[in-house]
Amino acid sequence: MDIRIENWNDTLKEPKPDYQFGDHVHIVDKEFYLPQLDKHRQVWIYLPKSYKDSEKKYPVLYMQDGQNLFHAKPARNNEWAVDTTVDNLIREGSQEMIIVGIDHGEDERLKEYNPYDSENGKGEGKAYAKFLAETLKPFIDQHYRTLPDVNNTAIAGSSMGGLITLFAIAAYADTFGSAGVFSPALWLAPQIYDHIAERLSGLQNHKLFFVAGDKEGNEMINNIKKVYSLLNPDGKNERIVFFEREDGKHTEWFWHREFEPFYKFIAG
């Protein structure tokens, strides 16, 4: 009897699927340089289907965690599928927007998306936010047909991406006019409350969309309420909203679902 072992079970690796994306989702650069951090990241862009056949200019939404943003074939269980969502909303009459996604730094994500030092290491979020405002946005405005003013520039992210989104719109209120803050990891950056308080006047005319779920825990909800009360103490500013969802969990399917009301909030 001739028995040969081809491989051991614990050394076998599932082949990575060859993901395909829509023909209006492109990679801007697989190794886009972040001079503020001396690193490289893949940058994606979604162009509305009308882009290739028109000369019009479009608002731009910048989003964190680019790996999970766009719908892939085969489908992934951790994707936001923002391109298919926006395609559907545009067909229903919503405003067209360009969406730019920046890949996170894998193991470095907890540092890159935190403006402050923490148990995870020295915070690099201030440099990252500066990259978004002073390097990436000018590049996108130069190479694509955009509406570059503050009222047509938005930013969004979830968890750590929500934290850096909130920091960025406060730090660069003359660059970003609206923000989607999904389940932000505020517990890792208690200094953010002072940051917001110092910049309240610059944010009162901005659109801020906060959302989180009860199944993410009391700390999550209480932290967002604390930020919301700073920004909108009497609840009368309709440009600053917070939605607490009873079934919401700290996961992509929840953020995918809540992306639609956020997009309608900023784009109509």
UniProtKB/TrEMBL annotation:
SUPFAM superfamilies, per the entry: alpha/beta-Hydrolases
| UniProt KW Cell cycle keyword | no
Which InterPro entries has this protein been placed in?
AB_hydrolase_fold, Esterase-like, Mycobacterial_A85_antigen
Indicate whether Hydrolase appears among the record's keywords.
yes
Pfam families for the chain? Esterase (PF00756)
* Domain of life per record: Bacteria
Give the organism, scientific name. Answer: Pedobacter petrophilus
Supply the alphabetized keyword list. Answer: Hydrolase
Q: What is this protein called?
A: Alpha/beta hydrolase
GO MF, one term, reads:
hydrolase activity
